[in-house]
């Protein structure tokens, strides 16, 4: 029995090493800060980004963290068509199998009509330098005026070896007077081979 447990710990530790190599820092914002993330424009006293544990949308929808305790809240307002962008680059090494997933929500604080063509929008994108994939997006046309979405899922397929940049963003469009907001959480899901092999073993241990 003892020997099996020892092997299990070694395999789990190997799995965790692979998580670290995939390199997202403070991925789920659980440290309460934005360490490891780049924010544009620069955060004037929390104006454009903050780590939250709950958020009340303009239409009275209340959000709590979909995973863990925290998520990040991005606010538009840098200018019409100027995105508030929070991004982080990370590397997937050969032999690692890596999936990124998370949640996003859009709190649209404007309207889109002939008189007010203000289609504020938000997105989650993943780029490897040559190709950019749109993982999630929302806008005023989709949600309706002064309305919000529930938490929505976004995910990547299995990421090959390489360097990637994950970006979260929100922008006012057409004017810059009513700031729309977007909320994001991220959950890196490494699938190292050791963990795949362990699946049955862990179930056995639990049983």
Task: Give an overview of the whole structure.
With 207 residues, the chain is an alpha+beta fold. The chain is 19% helix and 37% strand. The chain contains 3 helices and 12 strands. The chain has helices at residues 2-22, 140-143, 193-206; strands spanning 38-40, 49-52, 54-56, 62-64, 71-75, 84-92, 98-107, 121-127, 132-139, 152-155, 162-171, 181-190. Strands 1-6-11-8-9 form a 5-stranded antiparallel β-sheet. A 5-stranded antiparallel β-sheet has the order 2-5-12-7-10. Helix 1 (2-22) packs across helix 3. The radius of gyration is 19 Å and the shape is globular.
Widest sheet, order of strands = 1-6-11-8-9
Low-confidence stretches: 3-22, 194-207
> Which word captures the global form?
globular
Q: Percentage of helical residues?
A: 10-25%
Distance between the termini: 14 Å
Quick description:
The protein is α+β, with helices and mostly antiparallel strands and 207 residues long. 19% of the residues lie in helices and 37% in strands.
State the main characteristics.
single chain, 207 residues, alpha+beta, 5-stranded antiparallel sheet, 3 helices, 12 strands, 19% helix, globular, disordered C terminus
């Amino acid at each position: 029995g003892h020997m099996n447990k020892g092997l299990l710990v070694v395999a789990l530790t190997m799995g965790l090493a692979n998580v670290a190599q995939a390199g997202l820092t403070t991925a789920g914002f659980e440290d309460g800060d934005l360490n490891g993330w780049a924010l544009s424009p620069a955060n004037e006293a929390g104006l454009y980004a903050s780590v939250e544990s709950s958020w009340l949308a303009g239409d009275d929808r209340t959000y709590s963290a979909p995973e863990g305790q925290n998520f990040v809240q991005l606010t538009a307002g840098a200018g019409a068509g100027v995105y508030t962008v929070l991004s982080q680059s990370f590397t997937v090494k050969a032999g690692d199998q890596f999936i990124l997933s998370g949640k996003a929500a859009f709190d649209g604080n404007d309207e889109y009509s002939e008189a007010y063509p203000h289609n504020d929008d938000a997105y989650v994108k993943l780029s490897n330098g040559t190709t950019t994939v749109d993982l999630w997006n929302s806008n005023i046309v989709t949600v309706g005026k002064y309305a919000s979405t529930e938490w929505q899922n976004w995910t990547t397929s299995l990421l090959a070896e390489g360097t990637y940049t994950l970006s979260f963003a929100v922008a006012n469009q057409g004017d810059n007077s009513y700031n729309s907001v977007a909320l994001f959480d991220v959950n890196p899901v490494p699938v190292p081979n050791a963990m795949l092999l362990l699946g049955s073993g862990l179930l056995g241990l639990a049983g």
